[in-house]
Amino acid sequence: MTAVHRSRPRLRTTALIGALMCATVACGSEEAASTGSAARSGGAGATSGSSGAWEEPSSYTYTLVSSQGERALIGTFRVTVRDGEVARAVGLDDSGRQVVRRGLAEVPTIGMLLEDLEQARRDAAHTAEAEYAADGHPVRISLDREKNTIDDEALYVISGFTPADR
Fold it and tell me: Where is this chain compositionally biased, Low complexity type (predicted)?
């Protein structure tokens, strides 16, 4: 029997794996360099932008879309914060209206959402990611505390942020 050498497919496979590894490493390096806060995430997810310079004003309004998981806080809300506390929340969809009927204590300030993010990072959550606007306030927070647990995810999308001083 004659031995058959199959070096070309192996070479192509090795080259493909090498190219994929380089692309993956390059993406990871770019992400870490551009965010400046990936190390703070404790490996629990990437961040975009920076939250370090932003200080939560005592009074502001924002729109919150809270989704994913089996949680009480699901829906779309227009939130007014005065003196650091939720003064008014309007449910903008059926789910949001149900939450508001139960009470304002269930609707968070942006600071409370950031505290939840930081707690998830301290707890080494599977995912604890945030994206930030140019002024430093968060525009998206994604949490998944346990990798293999169903319905423990939370996604918060923040828009229409307006400090009351404006």
Answer: 34-53
Summarised one tens digit per residue, pLDDT across range 95-108 is 999 999 998 788 99
Neighbours of 25 (CB within 10 A): 10
pTM, full prediction: 0.69
CB 159 within 8 A of CB 63: yes
> Please, are residues 140 and 158 in contact by the beta-carbon 8 Å criterion?
yes
Residue 124 confidence (pLDDT) above 60: yes
* β-pair partners for 68: none
Q: Which amino acid is at 62?
A: Y
Lookup: tokens for 70: 């089996």
Measure the CA–CA gap between 163 and 59, rounded to whole angstroms.
6
Rounded CA separation 12/16 (Å): 6
Q: Where are the alpha helices (DSSP H) in 36-93?
A: none
In a domain, 72, yes or no: yes
Residue 2 forms part of a structural domain? no
Radius of gyration (Cα) for the chain, nearest Å? 22
Domain region containing 17: 7-35
